[in-house]
Amino acid sequence: MRGYLYVVLASTSFFLSYYSRLAWSVLSTYSSLRPTPYDDGLIFSLFFAAYIIVQVPSGLVSDAIGPKAVLTAALLGLAASSVLSGLAGSMVVEYIGSILMGFSAGWIYPTTVKLLSGSFEGGGLARAMGYYSLAWPLSVVLLGVGLPAVAEDLGWRWGYYLIGVASAAVAVAVIALMKDAGRRGNGSLSLRVLATRKVALLSIGGFLFYYAYWTFAFYAYDYLRSIGMSGVLAGEIYSMTAVAGIASTVLAGYMIARIGLWRAFLLSIPLYGLTILGFAFLRAPIWLAFMALAMGFFRFMITPSNSTLASVLGGPDRSGSVTGAANFFWQLSGVIAGAAAPLIFVPLGYGSLWVSMAAMVFASLIPYAMLRGAMSMLSSYRKGTR
Prior knowledge:
Blueprint: H1 2-30, H2 37-53, H3 55-65, H4 67-87, H5 91-105, H6 108-117, E1 120-121, H7 122-132, H8 135-154, H9 157-177, H10 197-226, H11 231-243, H12 245-259, H13 261-281, H14 285-340, H15 342-348, H16 350-363, H17 365-369, H18 372-375, H19 377-380, E2 384-385
Antiparallel strand pairs: 1-2
Helix pairs in contact: 1-2, 1-5, 1-6, 1-7, 1-8, 1-9, 2-5, 2-14, 3-4, 3-6, 3-14, 4-5, 4-6, 4-9, 6-14, 7-12, 7-14, 10-11, 10-14, 10-16, 11-14, 12-13, 12-14, 13-14, 13-16, 15-16
């Protein structure tokens, strides 16, 4: 039972780390600081940069001293920085808050994967990762549903205050309810695991996949508007790319446990690539809505698959380090994608952009295929929870 309590704590922590990253996209509209588009872009970039910087250290430290202390410190840091962002009286303070929020949130993903890999094995690990990954689509859906209402009824600052209160509450729950599961590093840092061929292949495969994902996430709304859709209709279709993920993240965990990790990748990645390709050729809203739903379904099957693979490659004692190293490159793809995508769609059009992104998704299968043997390790673990 304790293992599933850890799933709730890990997933809630991951939810807060992702929700805080997206919060400014809504709150900036209501902010009394009157941010310019350049201010908005800088807020996102500062969060992203700080988040990426700590990926490798967070994995190494969580392996060395255990996930409990790291997760507690990260949540308390997220709470304090969120409150600072809410109190900001100038954009300079808002910049500082965004940096500190990104720095704090960046420790959560590798640490929570470490926590789950130390608490579950075999099919139980795959299912746990599926439930854990619910945090990603839920954060997108609840952001659009809840945060505008908070900003309108209570004021934009309360959007950040509530993130701070929730983060502090989860930190208290971690202190009170969590043992230091998965502490296997004996207090030592190990850089050797970061230089292995398997970690490099996982990083490359994820980089290619997430590069296509971030490109679509950044520019899909503009694309839908460019083909004549209203802002409301474009927003509805865009949100559909997350809704179906609520079901598929859970399904993915059971599917991995049943058919194996490699078959899960082999099924979901090509189908995801085809949905991106569909945006290059379809124009009717009804068909694009169908593609958006299918895209979200297959895309969020891949998230728990990547987390499970990182856990398998690192094992219970080094899963934090492997996850942190791989996630550094997965998130770096977003920084590059935002700047590089216009080099394709400005001269050639959005159709060419979606075709090239679909090709990148298909290309990600190559490094994943080279890890096929490692994926079979999942079935060799004893099933269940510790």
